[in-house]
Amino acid sequence: MIKQILKLGTILFTITFVVVLLLGAVNALTKDIIAENTIKAENAARAELIKADYFKQLSENVYEGIEGGRKSCGYCVTASAKGYGGDIVMIVGYDSDFKLLGIKIIEISETAGLGSKASLPEFSESLRGKEPELSVVKSGGGKNEIDAISGATVTTNAVAKAINQSFEELLKTIGR
Amino acid sequence: MKNIIKDGMFKNNPTFILTLGMCPTLATTTSVLNALGMGLSTTAVLICSNAAISLLRRVIPQKIRIAGYIVVIAGFVSIVQMLLSAFLPELYKTLGLFIPLIVVNCIILGRAEEFASKNGVLPSICDGIGTGLGFTGALCIIAFVRELLGAGTLFGIKIMPQFFQSASMMVLTPGGFLTFGVVLGIINLIIRKRGANK
Fold it and tell me: How many CB pairs under 8 A join A and B?
């Protein structure tokens, strides 16, 4: 009896051990590439939000767009908030008057076809010119309001929260 | 071999005959693009896991087979996820959310238990291909109806004319159940008629 249990346990242990070894190997192989991809995606996202010559890092999440050598042409802030299916990570773009330019989603796992609409360019466009602190309304939102995505209120709330947090961090970083 | 593939697609269709993997079916049929993505990813995992389980079928004892299969399948899916994320980041961005969903898809465990643990590697791979394609087809049929009626689009392109008021319910859970039920009913009707004709 004991012998049988030991035998079964050992086999299961061996299978699990081999699988874990494989997982560890693949992880070691891909870890750096994945990290690099994330950095590339973030840089590409910043470039899409603001036309700048380069981005000066002001703090961990805040980057300032510089053009013509010295002129500040806007800010990009990385922010995240808990959505319906996990953290939504985005880069929020501001122009030099601290008005929203739009957002670029880096990570999102919201409901496909509903909350995932937050990744659409139309949604980002709809945010242009708005000013935090933002709240979510059903429709017809003004300068300080976002129109909720139909069927995805939780997602829209998370996006608003992330944008508001990014604005706070931006002001804190540049000392206002 | 070809018969095994055909069986997987029609006679043993995982969605409409075996009714396995209902959760991901309802979740990913909100658009045809998502359905296609989920179906093809699942097919890839099915082929690999069926092959692996078949290779290990004499090694894994009956008493611990479920635990053994789950370890192998979950390991596979995690590896696929890491490789995609590293080497095909654009594809990963589109399909990324579905991959963890595949691990809990009953179809994978179902076919491992039902077929791969009892057959050779090549037949098991064929079963994976057939079942996977059958799943993909079923998903696309359901998604076709849901996206067209629920959003007026197909593959994100507006198909329905201006005056069409899309029924948002179709892309939410009730619509999923309704569509699945109706399609299943139609298919059962066709099968029964065919059986009567013989």
Answer: 73
